[in-house]
Design goal:
The complex is a heterodimer. Chain A is an all-alpha fold. Helix content of chain A is about 60%, strand content about 0%. The radius of gyration of chain B is 22 Å and the shape is elongated. Classes of the chains: A mainly alpha, B alpha+beta.
């Protein structure tokens, strides 16, 4: 018995999302299929960009060179609301995932 | 997103009211500066806000496109108010004219206080309008949530 009989263990490759989805999730009003993962990551990037803008605003506020206060507050509110929207989307996704995992097979 | 447009509208209103307060503060700060004998010096200023929105009712799409271009809010200009100068008899003053009068800008402190009060209230109204839009958006995020 040598080690040559043991087949090498290969890592399990996750199936590509495009292969799982039969036709692809079409974008809203568009013709090109956009995968759901792309949608989620785009949304996350937008939220992250808004949070970065808020951080820059807060830095300029702390250093004292802010042009007007209400613009800073409005942008903070905007980023807070996009974060809330992201959170709600995540809650819905997690809920449906847990429902599926509870399904009897 | 859509609620950022109502934020932007409220922000233009806040800009105008803040400008009003700044101009009133400038008028008050310069109320006791002396004009030279030929009338050169500080002129009292006032803010004139205009809106490009015309009076006739526009359809839904026209309003939305104006809001999208950032044109729905007011635009403001600062222009001299043209008030008459205030002459004070002070013969010993170095800037006094031949009759012994010193001229000051025609700033009325009571008017400036009223301007600031009105601008402050209008600013509050803009904040309330923005908060209402924000509360509606936050409420919309609660749709279907676990209560």
């Amino acid at each position: 018995m040598t080690a040559a009989f043991i087949p090498p263990v290969t890592a399990i490759q996750p199936p590509a999302l495009e292969a799982v989805l039969p036709a692809g999730v079409a974008a809203l009003g568009g013709t090109a299929p956009v995968s759901f993962g792309n949608l989620v990551s785009n949304g996350l990037q937008q939220v992250s960009a808004q949070l970065n803008v808020t951080q820059a605003d807060l830095q300029s506020l702390a250093t004292g060179n802010v042009e007007n206060l209400h613009q800073v507050m409005l942008r903070m509110e905007e980023s807070r609301m996009s974060f809330q929207l992201m959170l709600q989307v995540r809650n819905r996704l997690l809920e449906s995932y847990q429902e599926i995992m509870r399904m009897q097979v | 997103m859509n609620y950022s447009q109502s934020f932007a509208i409220s922000a233009t209103g806040m800009d105008v009211e803040r400008l009003r307060v700044e101009v009133a503060a400038l008028n008050i700060a310069n109320a006791n500066t002396v004009l030279s004998a030929d009338g050169k010096g500080f002129q009292p200023l006032r803010v004139v806000a205009r809106s490009v929105l015309s009076a006739q009712a526009m359809d839904e799409g026209g309003f939305a496109s104006l809001v999208g271009q950032g044109l729905a809010g007011p635009t403001s200009m600062v222009e001299p108010s043209g008030k008459a100068v205030r002459a004070v008899l002070d013969p010993g003053h170095p800037q006094a004219d031949a009759r012994g009068y010193v001229t000051y800008p025609g700033v009325d402190p009571a008017t400036e206080m009223m301007t600031m009060l009105g601008a402050s209230r209008a600013y509050e109204a803009n904040v309330v309008a923005m908060n209402t839009a924000r509360a509606m958006a936050i409420k919309a995020l609660e749709i279907g949530g676990a209560s």
